Amino acid sequence: MSGEIINFIFSGTLNGAVFSLIALGYSLVYGVGHIMNLAHGAYFMITGYMLLWFLTFIPSFPLLNVLLVVTIVTIIGGLTYILLIKPLQDTNVGVVLVTFGLAFFLEQYALGISGTTSYSISDYMIIPGATKVWGYSMINQYILLIFMSLIIVLMFALFISKSKLGKSIRAVSQDREAATLMGINANRILFYTVMISAFLASIAAVLYLPVAAINGPSMGWSFLTNSFAVVILGGMGSLIGSVVGAYIVGFLTSFTILFIPNGPSWANLVPIIVIVIMLIIRPQGLFGKKELR
């Protein structure tokens, strides 16, 4: 029984660490531009496949591959804003449709090259092996991921609160028109936030996929759904809410897998249930502010 409890705590923390990295960027983009970027999960997915493809061509330099892939995915995030989001940002439906189209394109691109086969990219594992705690084996790479996630979240919070760019991001998210009158280029700030969101999703993939493996081009949608559940739970645009929501969804998912009969199948419904319940009882989320009409 103690082993199951340790497993529950560790896997819940792991899920929360991954979800928080991915959802932070998603929540940031929504908070600044009130934009729902449905290509966000695709950034995570395409990072995994690019790591796989680069491993074929540059097998001896995994660190170089990681740097190149993260840079490319961050640039893809920037191009997403310039070419797709910016021309349509005044129409929410248009942004949703065009980012969905990009996500579908990236999925089909990966499918055309690599098919639906699962792939291992364990060559990118930073700390191989496992550590036993009270008889339960914890994978070292996942332990690293948890600590790296906490460090990145703290650094991100300091960046938003202390840096000049971070303060500009906060200003635009609070009142775009007032920020513009103060001389802040809102479009440039939103461009940066989309790039930051792609960067965070890519980092999450780099840390998580070397152990979890690549499970097909459609995996991006599940991470998008989890991100959506996290920001709905925590509050759209609330960075604190995103972190808290990530760990709540993470532990709910872990509990479902470990303690509910046929848990792995039911676990896929956890984010959907969270979304539906929160939209009914508290649409603004745990830390969000109720919109005035």
In brief:
With 293 residues, this protein is an all-alpha fold. Helix content is 74%, strand content 3%.
Describe the structure.
With 293 residues, the protein is mainly α. It has one domain (2-217). Helices cover 74% and strands 3% of the residues. The protein contains 12 helices and 2 strands. The protein has helices at 2-33, 40-57, 62-85, 92-114, 140-162, 164-174, 176-181, 186-212, 219-234, 239-259, 263-267, 270-281, and strands spanning 130-133, 136-139. A two-stranded antiparallel sheet has the order 1-2. Strand 1 and strand 2 (136-139) form a beta hairpin. The longest helix is centred in the N-terminal third of the chain and has 32 residues, at 2-33. The model has no long low-confidence stretch (mean pLDDT 90). It comes from marine sediment metagenome. Keywords: Amino-acid transport, Cell membrane, Membrane, Transmembrane, Transmembrane helix, Transport. The chain crosses the membrane at residues 6-29, 41-58, 64-84, 96-121, 141-160, 189-213, 266-283. It is found in: Cell membrane.
Q: How would you describe this structure in keywords?
A:
single chain; 293 residues; mainly alpha; two-stranded antiparallel ribbon; 2 strands; 74% helix; Branched-chain amino acid ABC transporter permease; cell membrane; transmembrane helix; transport; amino-acid transport
